[in-house]
Amino acid sequence: MEVQEDRLHAFVGKMLGDLGGAFSVPTVRLGHRLGLFQTLAERGPLTAEGLADAAGGLTPRYVREWALAQAANGYVTYDEAAEAFFLSPEQAMVFAVPDSPVYLPGAFDLVAAMIEGEAKVETLFRKGGGVRWGDTAGCLFCATGAFFRPGYVNNIVHGWLPALEGVLAKLEAGATVADIGCGMGFSTVLMAEAFPQSRFVGFDFHAPSIEEARRHAQAHGLEGRVRFEAAPAKEIEEGGFDLVTAFDCLHDMGDPRGCAAAVRRMLRPDGTWMVVEPIAGDRPSQNMNPVGRLYYNASTMICVPTSLDQEVGEGLGAQAGEAKLSDVIRAGGFGRVGRAAEGPFNMVLEARP
């Protein structure tokens, strides 16, 4: 097969861009932990020496190399004449505004967790099986929570819940809500703060996540209306819920059909199940795009190994698609399933008995 030079050069250019992004992961994480992005957002433009001092007395030579690396990344703006660095408003939205819908430092931590778990996943390729959630890397559940939090802050209360038929009125009047797969409790606490007349319980099978969630609720003064319990979805014995939510977790479950059946039992006859999942088409060719690329890679390293470690091990993967997910939900006894809302990263399915 003859190599076409123009295609080769284009492909090498793409690879250089990809490698540049990969090389940036440790330096972005350092900048986040050391407060360098935040300092530039609040006090820039600053020289390397000024940034080192303002960030708490760091070593200027390291800070200069870091800042030049971020300028080369396009993550920081460099004024060569003044030898100063600053963040544009757009750069600040990504690296220095925690409640921004595009705040992404958590994504870099997630990449690091995936790399940390590489050897364990390689073993699975050879021998099969899975890796228990939380065991892949040191704090995978922390990185996952940080990655999803900005999307939840900007969408759950203002976009996703209002898209559900009749649910908002119930929450405002006083509803009972179960948040399955709640992780560290970001989604549960956000809903509880927005709807003070309602009561919430978060469930997750990962005990360390539940411990963090309880601390989170305590820090927000919500102990009276929010509680967290460590339990797999199929083993939840409570019922009578007006709303059950599942944020970015159904595809990670070993037995999502069993979860659907459990949710059906938990709901009141007029209740609603809101299932938030990664945006995906029903055919792989529909997911060959930047978002699908992220999700397929994360699914290889995290989602599929997590599912295959559990009972049944269906292994839906992060790009299951609406048709497959709807089939899983209907298998649990739901008669109505449809897409209520969507965004660049998620789709929201509404299921009713």
Which descriptors would you attach to this protein?
Rossmann fold; 2 domains; seven-stranded mixed β-sheet; two-stranded antiparallel ribbon; 16% strand; SAM-binding_MTase; WHD_Rv2258c; Methyltranfer_dom
Q: How would you characterize the largest beta sheet?
A: 7 strands, mixed
Q: Average the pLDDT over all residues and give the rounded result.
A: 95
Cα separation of the termini: 57 Å
Q: In total, how many domains does the architecture comprise?
A: 2
- Could you tell me the radius of gyration in angstroms? 22 Å
Q: What do we call the CATH homologous superfamily of the largest domain?
A: Vaccinia Virus protein VP39
> Which residues form runs of ≥5 with pLDDT under 50?
none
CATH architectural arrangement of the largest domain:
3-Layer(aba) Sandwich
Number of helices: 14
* Annotated CATH topology of the largest domain: Rossmann fold
Strand share of the residues? 15-25%
Number of strands: 9
Globally, the shape reads: globular
How would you write the strand order of the largest sheet? Answer: 5-4-3-6-7-9-8
Protein structure class:
alpha/beta
Instruction: Please identify the top-level CATH class of the largest domain.
Output: Alpha Beta
Strand-and-helix sequence, N→C?
Answer: HHHHEEHHHHHEHEHEEHEHHEE
Range of helix content? 40-55%
InterPro entries: Methyltranfer_dom, SAM-binding_MTase, SAM-dependent_MTases_sf, WHD_Rv2258c
GO molecular function: methyltransferase activity
Domain Methyltransferase: 172-279
Keywords: Methyltransferase, Transferase
